[in-house]
Every structure is written in C-alpha cells, then in structure tokens.
Design brief:
By secondary structure, the protein is α/β, with parallel strands linked by helices. The protein has helices spanning 22-28, 49-62, 77-89, 106-110, 113-119, 133-146, 161-180, 196-207, 223-240, 268-281, 290-302; strands at residues 18-20, 32-37, 67-73, 92-99, 123-128, 151-153, 187-192, 214-218, 253-255, 311-316. The longest helix has 20 residues, at 161-180. The mean pLDDT is 97. It binds pyridoxal-5'-phosphate.
Length: 338
C-alpha cells in the first residue's frame, strides 16, 4: 500500500504526538490510557479534517478548482479547516451550514468555528436542520458553475475514499509510533461521525495486519447505520487502494450509547469528560465529538470493558475551538471535581 501514488498537499503538522495520560489513567484505575494528538494537526487550531484535506485539496488543485465548497453543522470543524486550507492555497471557499441544534445562542451562531470560517475569508450560507445538505450543496455549486466558476465540492466531514486516505496514513503513523516505542496496544478508541476517520483507520490497520481492535464512539446515527456507513466507505477506500477485501464487516465496530439527545447537544457524560481531561491532563475536548468519544471511553473503563493491564489509545480528533460556541453549556458548579 503506497500512499505516495495519490496527490497530496502537505500542510498538517505530522506526526502528531502520542502521549501517556498518567493522571487520567490513575483516576480511573483501569487500563493505561494514551492519547494520539490529532487535535494538534496545526491548521487553524487543528483537528482530524486536516489529514483528509491534504488529499482532497490536492485533488481540487489538480482539477483546476478556483472555488471549494463543503457543508456541515453550524459549528463544523470540517468547514473551518476547509476554509483555512483554501485560504492557504489561495482558493475561494463557500460553506453551507446546517442549523442542526436550533440554538439561537449568539456564541453558537457566531463564535468558535464560525468566527474562524469568516476570518479565513470563507462565505457562509445557512440552511434549516433536516435539509438534504448534499443535494443543496450540489445545487448551489451548479449556480456557481453557471457563473463560470470551477467548483470542487467536498462531502460533509471530507468523508469519501480520497479523504479517508488521510486516516489510512494515520493508521500507518500510529503503528510506526507503537513499534518505535515498543508499545503493545490493545484498543484504539475515537469519536465517529461522517465515518471517514474510522473507515481510513480500519483500512490501514487491516492492511498492516495490526490486529488492534478499533472502536468508534458515535455522535449521531444509530449503531447499525453508523457501522454500515463506515463499512461501505472502508470498502470503497480499500478498493481505491487495490485491496478491496481487506476490511470485513465485523472489523467495523461502533458504540452509539453516548449520543444523548442528538448531534451537537452536549451530554452529562461529555461535560464530565471535558472537565476530567482539562483538569487532569490539560487537554481540551469539544462537546460535539471528542467529549462524547471520551465519555464512552471513561464509561467503558468504569464498566470493566477496558481492563487493568491493557493499553488503550484515545485518538483525539480535535474540535476544542467549538468550546467558545458552547460556553453556555458549562455550569461550573455541577462539573466534575476530582
Ligand atoms: C469530524 C469530527 C469527528 C468525526 O470524524 P469523522 O471522520 O467525521 O467520522 C470527530 N471529532 C471531531 C472533533 C470532528 O470534527
């Protein structure tokens, strides 16, 4: 498997650090917990979409695009990283933002990722929750095309086989770090949404015969739907790489017990995870993705699913800038106090 065959614009700060979380591990009294810092990919406060965009934006460039479009929720980290990547490449960027939470909070609608979208020069349009955002983006793209623009559209979350290559590469990067440090890793855990991260990781792990179970903690869809989405994308990614059968359906495992009331709506467990990571490890999680992923990790340690003597790596997918859009979610009196 040779990723240099695919066009790529190197922009992320790689490899991201792999660190041991001693204070969190001690507090929970279970496995040794490590963190892979993909919140530190370096582009406009970082996050997991930067790895995908290295491949997607190179493809946009090759096709001669002068305008890149994508879509996501109001506080989309993917939209913000796309706006930043486009700025760096001198490409225009237009974002469609879906109001999935119906929040009229000023910070939610204008601060955090939205502030940075505009700071990077992107233009934005809003759509009501429940809009078919993919169809909507294609119709807006057509409008730009009739005006003579060469538009490159990126699906939500950058999750297609091209974007997923970024996480095939992350699997290789992690395995190299584990091998260099002689770390025997028993589990990798991360938040899963539009599926590209998990699909790329499982493809890379399977192609390397790593035999490390991967668990995606869902933030939106029910379990079977999430697993199907990941599996289908993993198959398409593996096919692109010339090894179509490398991922089996049972390799794709999601746990969607930590979604709470819905996408983008903070949960008790997520807020507790934000407090624990911030106070014990000085690591910032975000309420939409990484906090729900961490809430799943913490709960599964407490339930004995991840055990003493094991080593678990939590892949931090970023998103902390959304904290500034969610400040109203934090009632400090109720938070975790160790
Ligand atoms: C997009 C995102 C995820 C989920 O990654 P997918 O590839 O969409 O499944 C997780 N965490 C953060 C912070 C994200 O922005």
């Amino acid at each position: 498997m040779h990723l240099s065959r695919y066009p790529r614009h190197f922009l992320a700060h790689l490899p991201t650090p792999l660190e041991r979380l001693d204070r969190l591990s001690r507090e929970l009294g279970g496995p040794e917990i490590w963190i892979k810092r993909d919140d530190c990919t370096g582009l406009s406060t970082g996050g997991n979409k930067t790895r995908k965009l290295e491949f997607l934006m190179a493809e946009a460039d090759l096709r001669g695009a002068d305008l890149v479009m994508t879509q996501g929720a109001t506080q989309s980290n993917h939209a913000r990283q796309t706006a930043a990547f486009a700025a760096k490449m001198g490409m225009a960027c237009h974002l469609l933002l879906e109001d999935r939470t119906s929040s009229n909070n000023a910070n939610y609608n204008h601060n955090g990722n939205v502030l940075l979208d505009h700071m990077h020069g992107a233009t934005t349009e809003k759509r009501p929750g429940g809009t078919d955002m993919h169809a909507e983006m294609e119709s807006v793209a057509e409008r730009f095309r009739t005006e003579g623009r060469n538009v490159y559209t990126i699906p939500g979350g950058g999750s297609n086989p091209t974007g997923a290559l970024g996480y095939v590469n992350c699997a290789f990067e992690m395995l190299a770090q584990f091998n260099d440090r002689a770390l025997k890793v028993d589990h990798i855990v991360h938040a899963t949404g539009s599926a590209g991260t998990q699909a790329g990781l499982i493809t890379g792990l399977k192609a390397m015969n790593a035999r490390i179970p991967l668990l995606g903690i869902g933030v939106r869809a029910p379990r079977l739907k999430q697993e199907e989405n990941v599996y289908n994308l993993a198959r398409a990614t593996a096919e692109k790489l010339g090894c179509p059968d490398v991922v089996a359906r049972e390799d794709v495992v999601a746990n969607t017990d930590y979604v709470g009331d819905g996408y983008g709506i903070p949960t008790e467990g997520g807020l507790e995870a934000i407090g624990m990571f911030a106070e014990l490890e000085a690591v910032l999680l975000d309420p939409v993705y990484s906090a729900k992923g961490a809430a799943g990790l913490i709960d599964l340690v407490r339930k004995g699913h991840f055990k003493k003597g094991e080593r678990v790596v939590f892949l931090h997918t970023g998103g902390a800038v959304a904290l500034f859009g969610y400040d109203s979610a934090f009632d400090f009196a109720d938070r975790w106090t160790g």
